[in-house]
Amino acid sequence: MNTNDKKRPNPIDVHVGSRIRLRRNMLGISQEKLGESLGITFQQIQKYEKGTNRVGASRLQAIASILNAPVSFFFEGAPNEDGDPVAGLAEEGTPYVGDFLSSSEGIQLNRAFVRITDPKVRRRVLDLVKALATDGTAPD
């Protein structure tokens, strides 16, 4: 076994960690707050999120409960042994969703949007965003 392989985090651990970070950020929960809820330090949360430390099954169940997500959420789009995403766990053709929700703007937009309770206002916001996207990409 190559020594460098030992130091490189497992791609599944990295993926699960990134999904923990994604869900935590979506909910606006700090690493400190999540760590307190689990009885561990924020540094341990950082290690989980980077994939440098593997999250055990019972700990992942506790994280899922705190973050109000099914355990399966943390495996959606996970790579297989070859590093390719596993078919059936992620929505086909929508890798941009994860990218969007990983960005600061995407998180802010998502948080604000879910606070809109009027369906008509939500629809108008969606129409506005679509119009702005079309205007930005329309040929001259």
TrEMBL record:
<dbReference type="InterPro" id="IPR010982">
    <property type="entry name" value="Lambda_DNA-bd_dom_sf"/>
</dbReference>
<dbReference type="Pfam" id="PF01381">
    <property type="entry name" value="HTH_3"/>
</dbReference>
<protein>
    <submittedName>
        <fullName>Transcriptional regulator, XRE family</fullName>
    </submittedName>
</protein>
<feature type="domain" description="HTH cro/C1-type">
    <location>
        <begin position="20"/>
        <end position="74"/>
    </location>
</feature>
<dbReference type="InterPro" id="IPR001387">
    <property type="entry name" value="Cro/C1-type_HTH"/>
</dbReference>
<dbReference type="GO" id="GO:0003677">
    <property type="term" value="F:DNA binding"/>
</dbReference>
